[in-house]
Design goal:
By secondary structure, the chain is of the alpha/beta class. It has 16 helices and four strands. The protein has helices at residues 8-17, 20-32, 36-41, 56-63, 73-81, 85-104, 126-130, 152-174, 183-201, 208-211, 215-227, 234-242, 244-249, 261-277, 281-285, 289-294, and strands spanning 2-6, 113-120, 134-137, 143-148.
């Protein structure tokens, strides 16, 4: 396996040093274009055909990445915090260790080359606030990233988030993404990824998407989650997966769910499955969601 690193700190310095009219293009073509195959899968152009149109700048702003128009003198301070060689080495090793775990389990992962980076998050973005300053994306095989507001907490946890995203990266090489994905498939995928990360790094580094919704709350909502496992399409399952607050931010209807309800429910569902079967999270990662759900019926009645 080859894991390549895109050092964003060097690019952020070039952006902040550049004249205002040049900043967006440095962001597009130096920071984002190495991930272009990923953006193509999401149908996000690097540059809009018309001024102000949808492109990687707008998409980044919406998802909570810090974009050039919001970079200030404080961006340099954050960039300095993102510049420690030891941080990049630890994060690269997290991706490498995660991929190696599958090899140790005898799983031949098809893709052999990966690109990862750490990016700065927009502290004013509500998604950033709800996720306690860090997040990630590993849904397109070959590309893994996390974005964060650098501070003591996020810098100590981001490598575990990268393990979570690496698990997604592997899973979607075996279970192909489709636009009409169901809530059941999504909570299985998220539960697998977080169990994979905590197997590697411990329960204390579980993300807020799991820890902020405690087990009694999960037990109180899992009947509703179970009743809607077949709901399809991200716009329809959004509130069940991410919670009402995030759904409302996207103009989608609330359904009475707390923050990241589906993530937390999926985490405990997969924990039940792993305990029952004796499998590791890596072994379960390549299984179809339907098989995991059918062998986890007892979870809903615990």
């Amino acid at each position: 396996m080859t894991v390549r690193t895109l050092r964003s700190d060097e690019i952020y310095r070039r952006i902040t040093a550049a004249p205002g009219e040049k900043r967006d293009d440095i962001f597009r073509y130096e920071l984002m274009s190495p991930f272009q195959r990923k953006w193509d899968c999401y149908r996000i152009p690097l540059k809009a055909k018309t001024p102000g149109g949808y492109d990687i700048i707008m998409a980044s702003r919406m998802t909570g990445l810090l974009t050039p128009s919001k970079m200030t003198a404080d961006t340099l301070r954050q960039t300095d915090m993102l510049s420690e060689d030891a941080l990049w080495e630890r994060c690269a090793k997290s991706v490498e260790r995660s991929l190696a775990r599958f090899e140790e389990e005898g799983i031949d992962v098809p893709l052999k080359e990966y690109l990862f980076s750490l990016l700065l998050a927009d502290g004013d973005n509500p998604y950033t606030v709800m996720n306690e300053g860090y997040c990630g994306d590993g849904g397109i095989p070959g590309f893994i990233m996390a974005w964060l507001i650098p501070n003591e907490s996020t810098l100590s946890r981001v490598h575990a988030a990268l393990a979570h995203e690496t698990d997604h990266n592997v899973r979607f090489q075996f279970e192909k993404w489709h636009d009409d994905i169901t809530l059941g498939e999504m909570i299985v995928s998220e539960g697998l990824a977080e169990n994979f990360a905590t197997e590697l790094y411990g329960e204390e580094l579980a993300g807020p998407w799991v820890k902020k919704t405690d087990r009694p709350t999960v037990d109180s909502i899992k009947g509703e989650i179970r009743a809607n496992l077949g709901v399809q399409g991200l716009e329809n399952l959004n509130a069940y997966l991410y919670g009402d607050d995030m759904a409302v931010l996207q103009g989608l209807p609330p359904v009475g769910m707390p923050y990241c309800a589906g993530y937390a429910c999926g985490y405990h569902l997969i924990r039940y499955f792993l305990d029952k079967t004796g499998m590791t999270a890596a072994q379960a990662t390549i299984l179809p969601a339907g098989e995991i759900l059918s062998r986890s019926e007892g979870f809903w009645n615990e």
